[in-house]
Design a protein that fits this description.
The chain is α/β, with parallel strands linked by helices. The protein has helices at about 70-85, 105-115, 150-170, 180-190, 200-205, 210-215, 270-280, 330-340, 355-360, 375-385, 400, 420-430, 465-480; strands at about 1-5, 15-20, 25, 35, 50-55, 55-60, 95, 135-140, 195-200, 225-230, 240-245, 245-250, 290-300, 310, 320, 345-350, 365-370, 390-395, 410, 440-445, 450, 460. The chain has two domains: about 1-140, Leucine Aminopeptidase, subunit E, domain 1 (3-Layer(aba) Sandwich), CATH 3.40.220.10; about 155-480, Zn peptidases (Aminopeptidase), CATH 3.40.630. Helix 7 (about 270-280) packs across helix 13 (about 465-480) and helix 10 (about 375-385) crosses helix 13 (about 465-480). One of its GO terms (molecular function) is metalloaminopeptidase activity.
Length: about 475
């Protein structure tokens, strides 16, 4: 769906969002200024009502009290329109924002409307009468928002990244293989003009990416170690992002016993990083953004790595494998060390659907955050909270690192105990960051994939893309 700026409304169908007011609402002066019956609509959050007036049909959208309005709820209200009211778009549509709205509510409106057009029907035969949103054009009239065009352009870039993330996570594992991930990033490099390099198994073996290779060695689908380097000529900061890309996770010989059909989502960290990369490139942010995506399939086969194996790593550290289902941290270990050795970014951040422990701590509403730098920690929290992508810190105390000590190797990949699993996993990763002073790890296991009112099955959320974009944008604007 295209959203285009306009100075006047010529459409038959009009979307009118309202903040709740107990003393009643009225139509904008442009549309006659008539009072809206209180019995019909008062602007309560999530309410959607139709109001016909002559040849026009108004769609009234409730955002709740303005003083309590938040981005997440506003976005959800607009998402309902395109997700649940698709017939409304069979006619030309205008979105009208009066003076009560801000740039924040405009962005929530745009991203919500776009998100509502997203469907999981990749392999379904199209219905003859369904609305083709790729052919829908919506005009935006926002006469009192001076930055409307700029916000709309930025929102379009964010949506490109979010849609990319959603599509990668939701499609099945036979489609989204490590090779597919590599092809996706290579195409983005061609589209936006940044450098992409992909190491296959032989090249990875030559340079010593041993932990990365160990995880994928049981699969018939070859691994791909993907490096993308977006460099704006006026770059103001260099950020390194590493994303866990396990395109399907059986658990290996420590096989999963429940919910394995959801394990196509175990590349949610890599998908979020790819989405953030595309959003940054589409918005032409003046930064350098280096991304590393170690992509593998963790399968069981004659060559699969085993519990009790001792494997190498790119850092030179040896790793005792206690649990083959603690595989994401192994590929991230090589990704983090490679990033630090070859690129030395000012900020180093990794995202991963890493542990069930983070879900046990925060449920499905918040991701676990670990950081060696308080300023970066606060910046990530601020960037996420403002758009409903919540992250909250947990400690990186050295005493948890002792849990990962091994008698046989330099470190073990799992402490084997039913507590502090997210923290000990973070301490494992920290051992491969070469003491980076501004490193953060986001465990997004509970937030990248879940239930909602918009599908019958669990599906991708796009978590992390907007958070990372905000972080990058904030550094450009304020250096924080």
């Amino acid at each position: 769906m295209q959203i285009q700026m306009s100075t006047s409304s010529s459409a038959a169908h009009i979307i009118l969002p309202y903040f709740e007011q107990a003393d009643g609402l009225q139509l904008p002066e442009l549309y006659g200024g008539e009072a809206i019956p209180k019995k019909l609509f008062t602007g309560e959050v999530g309410a959607i009502r139709h109001l016909p007036q002559g040849d026009r049909l108004f769609l009234l959208v409730g955002l709740g009290p303005k003083e309590k309005a938040n981005f997440e709820e506003m976005k959800g209200s607009f998402r309902k329109i395109t997700a649940k009211q698709s017939d409304f778009f069979r006619e030309p549509v205008t979105l009208y924002l009066d003076g009560s709205h801000t740039e924040e509510s405009l962005q929530a409106a745009a991203l919500g409307l776009w998100m509502g057009t997203y469907r999981l029907d990749f392999y379904k035969k199209p219905k003859a009468d369904q609305v083709d949103f790729s052919q829908v054009s919506l005009e935006l009239v926002a006469p009192e928002l001076q930055q409307a065009a700029e916000i709309l352009q930025q929102s379009a870039a964010i949506w490109k990244g979010q849609k990319r993330c959603l599509t990668l996570v939701d499609q099945p594992a036979h489609q989204v293989t490590p090779a597919f991930m590599a092809e996706t990033v290579q195409q983005l490099g061609q589209d936006y003009g940044f450098e992409v390099r992909v190491f296959d198994a032989e090249q990875a073996r030559e340079i010593g990416l041993e932990a990365f290779l160990a995880v994928g060695q049981g699969s018939a689908r070859p691994p791909a170690f993907i490096i993308a380097d977006y460099v704006h000529p006026d770059a103001r900061i260099h950020v390194g992002l590493v994303g866990k890309g396990v395109t399907f996770d059986t658990g290996g010989y420590n096989i999963k016993t429940a919910g394995m059909h959801h394990m196509k989502c175990d590349m949610g960290g890599a998908a979020a990083v790819i989405g953030a990369l595309e959003a940054a490139a589409a918005a032409a942010l003046p930064i350098r953004l280096t991304t590393i995506l170690p992509c593998v399939e963790n399968a069981i086969g004659p060559s699969a790595f085993l519990p009790s194996d001792v494997i190498g790593s790119y850092s030179g550290k040896t790793i005792e494998v206690i649990d083959t289902d603690a595989e994401g941290r192994l590929i991230l270990a090589d990704g983090l060390y490679y990033m630090q050795k070859h690129f030395q970014p000012e900020l180093l951040i990794d995202l991963a659907t890493l542990t069930g422990s983070s879900v046990g701590t925060f449920g499905y509403a918040c991701a676990a955050l670990f950081s060696t730098d308080k300023t970066l920690e606060n910046s990530l929290m601020e960037a996420g909270m403002s758009v409903g992508e919540r992250v909250w810190p947990l400690p990186l105390w050295d005493l948890y690192g002792k849990e990962m000590e091994s008698d046989m190797a330099d470190i073990k990949n799992y402490h084997g105990k039913p507590f502090a699993g997210a923290i000990t996993a973070a301490k494992f990763l920290q051992a491969f960051t070469e003491g980076h002073e501004k490193w953060a790890h986001l465990d997004i296991a509970g937030t990248a994939f879940g239930d909602s009112a918009f599908a019958k099955s669990k599906h991708a959320t796009g978590f992390g893309v907007h958070l990372l974009f905000n972080l990058l944008q904030n550094h450009v604007d304020h250096g924080k």
